[in-house]
Amino acid sequence: MSKTPTSHTDQARVKPWNRKNPYGNGKHKHLSPEQKAKAKHRAEAAGRPYPNLVDNMWAARQREGS
């Protein structure tokens, strides 16, 4: 059974794939080639053959060009 988070700390404990989109039903944005490369590098450093959702989320939060 899924528990609805009631505070910011509860929200942090909910898995990313179970969270609601904080931007509503807006259009999804694609990662740039640079962001994709960062996500792939992070996945390889962790021993994964390709990036997972968490790697992609991390790359999306990184500033372009850094």
From the structure above, extract its key features.
66 residues; mainly alpha; 3 helices; 42% helix; 0% strand; globular
Query: Which geometry do the CA atoms define?
Result: globular
Helical amount: 40-55%
Structural class: mainly alpha
Gap from first CA to last CA? 41 Å
Number of DSSP helical runs: 3
Which stretches of 5+ consecutive residues score pLDDT under 50? none
Strand content: under 5%
The overall average pLDDT, rounded, is 82
What does this structure look like?
42% of the residues lie in helices and 0% in strands. It has a domain at 31-66. By secondary structure, the protein is an all-alpha fold. It has helices at 8-13, 33-45, 53-61. Helix 2 packs across helix 3 (53-61). The chain starts with 7 loop residues before the first helix and ends in a 5-residue tail after the last helix. The chain is built from 3 helices and no strands.
